[in-house]
Amino acid sequence: MKNQLGEWYLFPSLLDLSASQTANSTLEDYVDALVAPARAQNRDRYFTYLTSIAEENAYYEQGQVDASFGFRLGYDSSSNRVFVIEAFEGAPALAAGIDRGVEIVQIGGQNVSTLMGAGGPYSVIDALGADTVGLTRQLVVRDLSGTTRTVSLSKSVFDLDPVSDRFGSKIIDDGGRKVGYINLRTFIDTAEPDLRAAFAEFKAHGVTELIIDLRYNGGGLISIAAFMGDLMAAGRSGQDFGYVTFRDSKSAENETIAFEPQAESIAPTRIAFIGTSGTASASEMVINGMQPYLGTGMALIGTNTYGKPVGQIALDRPDCDDRLRAIALKVENADHQGEYYNGLASTVPNTCRASDDIGHQLGDPNEAMVRTALDFLAGRSCTAIASVSTAATASISGKVETSAPQRNLLTPAQPRRATDLELPGVH
Asked: How far apart are CA 40 and CA 14, in angstroms?
């Protein structure tokens, strides 16, 4: 492991090669000790970790999500409340009528406010239990109407739809203007047909203005990020989307990613990208990649993004089902712009601040972030995002709930799986 990181790690001078495996109780702790200097400089925020080959392949290739209730949770540390901000089709929560905007009041008889007050969001994660198929919890939930009810949920494995059939892609009529809206949950192989179908519809209706909603998208495959760029590259054949660059000793692995327009590709004139501090990695790569071509014709809507201009490679030991995900490359756009470790708000030509209005469904033109995106596309004014902050907000029925810094999503302290990073807040 030390030798592998010594050979491939993007920041070789930020490895603590004096770290001892015997001094750490687990391999995970050993990995953390090796990359601690890079973490201290905000270059590797648990992006290097050990995981399961089988589980990760099942996620990236099929969209299979580890055992969970199938909802994404966000929290408000100022009032010690936890809300469902998204529910996934084919999973237990949505089947029980739990969807965006529902508040989790109790978990297994424990008040969420008490859990949050005693141990913060990690106490809530502990109360939800291990990611084990069949594990059951009794939840007390409060619907948007104010009705409180008790629901029993059991964790199961399910296949994620990258673009929801409920709200993931649509054409919004904004005062006679046709605006294409797409919400991409994650960059996995099964996203390609969904993206093709969405852009084919946009093309058929002559859409040139887009809202691309990546507010909870923690990233995924560079190949799918490049494919999404291709779908916005009509007339740009051969031009560069961006660059993948390894450390000097591995420069033979460097890659230039050129646009490859598809039959469904359009030539957008204006794009509003919706992002939050849960927007990371491949999502940021797409946003950054379009800057050289759209300039002031694009904007970041919402809050600042997470700040992950780097990517991992897989170093496998198949006999143990062990995969070491190691930071080994950086991504840049056609202008060689990268290094956005503090998020994209200070690099994007236009930004518009907006809260995550969980009182409305994703894709609803009345939802605060979508409405602000429509305002930008129409040339209406907005308030800029403060780029120094990565704090996100959530609101219900117009009442702003201030969230915690970094992500307002309920995420583990130390991600150990693809879903922890790519689907932040899923439980």
From this structure: 9
Q: If you count them, how many residues does the chain have? A: 427
DSSP secondary structure letters along 186-251: -B-TTHHHHHHHHHHHHHHTT--EEEEE-TT---B-HHHHHHHHHTT-TT-TT-EEEEEEE-GGGG
Coil, strand or helix at 125 = helix
d(CA 288, CA 309): 9
Other CB atoms within a 10 A radius of the CB of residue 198 amount to 23
**Residue 162 and residue 381: Cα distance in Å, rounded?**
32
For 49, residues 6+ apart whose C-beta sits below 8 A from its C-beta are: 28, 31, 324, 325, 414, 415, 416
C-alpha 261/C-alpha 164 separation (Å) is: 24
Angstrom distance (rounded) from CA 279 to CA 293: 21
Res. 389: pLDDT tops 70: no
* CA angle 34–40–46, rounded 5-degree value: 60
**What angle, rounded to 10 degrees, do the helices at 112-119 and 121-128 form?**
130
The answer to whether the beta carbons of residues 51 and 417 sit under 8 Å apart is yes
- Give the C-alpha separation, 225 to 63, whole Å: 16
Provide CB contacts within 8 A for 220, sequence distance 6+: 60, 186, 187, 188, 191, 281, 282, 418, 422
Report the 10 Å Cβ neighbour count for 238.
Answer: 9
Q: Is the pLDDT of residue 26 over 70?
A: yes
Lowest-pLDDT range of 97-106, 196-205, 415-424: 415-424
Among 343, 245, 333, 231, CA closest to 292: 333
Q: Is 265 helix (H, G, I), strand (E, B) or coil?
A: coil
Rounded Cα distance between 266 and 81, Å, is: 42
CA atoms of 351 and 357, how far apart (whole Å):
18
**Threshold 0.90, pTM exceeds:** yes
375: left (phi over 0), alpha (psi -120 to 50) or beta: alpha
Please state the φ and ψ torsions of residue 249, each to the nearest 5 degrees: -70, -10
* Angstrom distance (rounded) from CA 46 to CA 281: 13
